[in-house]
Structures are given as C-alpha cells and as structure tokens.
Amino acid sequence: MSSQTNIDICASTEIEEGGKGKRFPVTVRGDDTSGFVVRYGGQVYGYLNRCAHVPVELDWFEGEFFESSGLYLMCATHGAVYAPDTGKCEGGPCTGAHLRKIMTVERDGRIYWRPDELVKAAEA
Ligand code: FES
C-alpha cells in the first residue's frame, strides 16, 4: 500500500472539540495496535495510541483522551499530559517526550489517516 493512501476513519462530526476522539486500527512492526484522532482548535490531530512513558494505550475509556479541561490529552495510566497539537508531554513521567504523530486529512466531512514507514494499515 502506498504512503499516499488515505484510509477512512470516521465522519468529521464523530469527534468533538476537546472531547471524544476516535480510535482506528493500525499495525506497528507487525503488532496490532491503535491510532486515534482528536479535534483541538478546530483542527484534527492524529497520534499512535501509545504513551511516551510506557508503551500502553492512553485512553481510560474508549475514545476518551482529553482530561477534564479539554486542553490536554492525558494518559490514563500515570497521568502524563500531552499538548493536543504537538503531542509533546507537558507534565508527568515523560515530560518533553512526544507522542508519535500520524498524518490525517479532513475532507468532505470525513477524516482519513495515512500510513507511513512505521505505522501501517491493519490487515483486513
Ligand atoms: S504509561 Fe502513560 S504516564 Fe506512564
């Protein structure tokens, strides 16, 4: 599959500004895992669903990535907080580290992601 392939995730209306995000299946070095998209400042941001501290998924409940203020993404395990637009850890055990970004495209009311050299499409 080419790196320019856009893979459909969901309708634009399914993710809320500073609120519920959406997970999608990916593979990384042959392991099935997930990515996620969130909306912040009107923009869509995509990341690998893997904390920069210990490689666990971030969401405490499926699709719940933001902490209560809606300003930071938070890891459910030890509470690391990440800036939604840069993926940089702004507080917690991995301060200064980054979430792995995934390229996203929003077009005609749908959100898509693009596989890259690390994050690949999950097998159907
Ligand atoms: S695993 Fe995310 S903060 Fe420790």
Task: Explain how this protein is built.
This protein has 124 residues and is mainly beta. It has strands spanning 7-11, 22-28, 31-40, 43-48, 73-74, 81-82, 89-91, 101-102, 104-107, 110-113, 119-121. The chain has one domain: Rieske Iron-sulfur Protein (3-layer Sandwich). Strand 3 (31-40) and strand 4 (43-48) form a beta hairpin. Keywords: 2Fe-2S, Iron, Iron-sulfur, Metal-binding. Residues 7-113 form the Rieske domain. InterPro entries: Rieske_2Fe-2S, Rieske_2Fe-2S_sf.
Strand content: 35-45%
Instruction: Tell me, rounded to a whole number, the average pLDDT.
Output: 95
Strand order of the largest sheet: 8-4-3-2-11
* CATH class placement: Mainly Beta
Q: Strand-and-helix sequence, N→C? A: EEEEEEEEEEE
In which range does the helix fraction lie? under 10%
Number of discrete domains: 1
CATH superfamily: Rieske [2Fe-2S] iron-sulphur domain
CATH topology: Rieske Iron-sulfur Protein
CA(first)-CA(last) distance = 13 Å
Comma- or semicolon-separated keywords:
124 residues; 11 strands; five-stranded antiparallel sheet; Rieske Iron-sulfur Protein; 0% helix; 39% strand; mainly beta; binds FE2/S2 (inorganic) cluster; three-stranded antiparallel sheet; single chain
What layout of secondary structure does this protein have?
Layout: E1 7-11, E2 22-28, E3 31-40, E4 43-48, E5 73-74, E6 81-82, E7 89-91, E8 101-102, E9 104-107, E10 110-113, E11 119-121
Antiparallel strand pairs: 1-10, 2-3, 2-11, 3-4, 4-8, 5-6, 6-7, 9-10
This protein binds FE2/S2 (inorganic) cluster.
FE2/S2 (inorganic) cluster (FES) binds at residues 51, 53-54, 56, 75, 77-78, 80, 92-93.
